[in-house]
Design goal:
By secondary structure, this protein is α+β, with helices and mostly antiparallel strands. It is 33% helix and 30% strand. It binds flavin-adenine dinucleotide (FAD). Its cofactor is FAD.
């Protein structure tokens, strides 16, 4: 079988790229190990989606099909330092109607999947796993474990942070494990969250409460491995008490409404995200600490930019040419590196135990809160508009 673009990995990044290529002359194949399934109740994996990515999801025809009752706008953010400092941003002060939206991962994945299933220029291979890549000057041939062979002009690795495509193609990745887990769980709260996303920089990591529709929040607690293991082992009522307490009981008592889960965290840099006839997108191309909430936001922008370049490419120019793919790499490098660097530095600043640093960083937060230019820079970081 012969295609123009073969995408390995139908996570949010791979699915959004496939959707963005819907109204093109390109013949696409999507290879995915397992199809996404809806989660009963509230998915503990939620994402803060930036306005730029809400627009992208709108453009590819997905946003309007999402259940509006489950999309929660973020009107403001409160960031608490470890020494009493506080930094606040609001959509109103920044001249925006929302700073972003909180959406469940499975909600977006299922909707993207439904779109892709109906796409007439797309062949869906699922469940399917690749076993070999053969590169030649004119094409790439991807062999699946069931023996099927897919020939293509361009192979996309959208297969997540342990990307098989990246490894098999020999593209290097530089990993910096944080020795931390991101623990996630959802809670019902006693007091209304008023659409405010809250974050606490604490001695034991970074705790975020993201507003969910209704009186619910989603927690992401990035904390050292041992602390995460201890939290994961706590009975429900003890966990609720500890989470409420860690957030200064700002929303009153909490009641757990989803299973807790924990993910290992690492910074991953990929010096080269393209090769002849091959490009990486999403977590296959970069890993970032979740304190910024920008992982999938970077992935959606990879998909948007790559789809734009492929669509604009004249028919007589090869879409697998290294020249075109280098343009994609250049277009994505600055935002990715800046976001990784800023997030990594912020995390380090709050993890350092040097004497005198704690008061200094808290004074820094208070000063930033009072200086509009600095604050504006941070709002741009928070909404992914560097
Ligand atoms: C605790 C935590 C909280 C986070 N919070 C946020 C947040 O608030 N905002 C945000 O933007 N990001 C957040 N992220 C990051 C976000 O989860 C990732 O950036 C995002 O899921 C990456 O999507 P992806 O499609 O690139 O990869 P994945 O979601 O990993 O998808 C990869 C897909 O490829 C498939 N696959 C893998 N290998 C193969 C193979 N060999 N053959 C076939 N199929 C294969 C998999 O089945 C999967 O469907 C968070 C991450 C963590 C750990």
């Amino acid at each position: 079988m012969s295609f123009d673009v073969v995408i390995v990995g139908g996570g949010l990044a791979g699915l959004s790229l496939a959707c963005a290529l819907r109204d093109t002359r390109l013949r696409i194949a999507l290879v995915e190990g397992r199809m996404p399934t809806p989660v009963a109740g509230w998915d503990a994996r939620v994402y803060a989606i930036t306005p730029a990515n809400a627009d992208f999801l709108q453009q590819i025809g997905v946003w309007k099909h999402l259940d509006a009752e489950r999309i929660s706008p973020i009107y403001a953010m409160e960031i608490h330092g470890d020494g009493g400092a506080q930094l606040d941003f609001s959509a109103y002060e920044s001249g925006m109607s929302e700073l972003g939206w909180i959406l469940e991962s499975s909600l977006m994945a299922v909707e993207l999947w439904e779109n892709v299933k109906r796409q007439s220029n797309l062949g869906l291979f699922c469940p399917a796993v690749p076993s070999a890549i053969e590169m030649s000057e004119k094409a790439v041939v991807l062999t699946l474990t069931d023996g099927q062979k897919l020939a293509t002009k361009l192979l996309i690795g959208a297969d997540g942070r342990d990307s098989w495509v990246r490894e098999t193609a020999g593209l290097k990745s530089i990993d910096t494990p944080y020795g931390e887990m991101g623990m996630v769980a959802n809670f019902e709260c006693e007091r209304p969250h008023r659409g405010i996303a809250r974050q606490w920089f604490r001695d034991d990591g970074v705790l975020a409460w993201l507003p969910l529709a209704g009186n619910r929040i989603s927690m992401v607690w990035s904390t050292p491995d041992a602390d995460a293991a201890e939290l994961m082992a706590e009975p429900e009522e003890v966990l609720c008490f500890r989470v409420a307490n860690a957030g200064a009981n700002i929303l009153g008592k909490l009641k757990q409404i989803s299973q807790a889960a924990a993910f290992p965290l690492r910074l991953m840099r990929v010096p080269s995200t393209v090769a002849p006839r091959l490009a990486l997108i999403g977590d296959a191309a970069h890993g970032i600490h979740p304190l910024s909430g920008h992982g999938i936001n970077l992935g959606f922008q990879d998909a948007r930019v790559l789809a734009g370049l492929l669509t604009a490419n004249p028919e007589w120019l090869d879409i697998g040419s290294e020249r075109l793919l280098r343009r994609y790499q250049r277009a994505r490098r600055e935002e990715t590196v800046l976001m990784q660097y800023t997030t990594h530095t912020l995390r380090r600043l709050f993890r350092e135990r040097l004497p005198g640093l704690k008061p200094l960083r808290n004074v820094g937060m208070n000063v930033t809160n009072a200086v509009p230019v600095l604050k504006n820079m941070l709002v741009r970081y928070a909404v992914g508009a560097f």
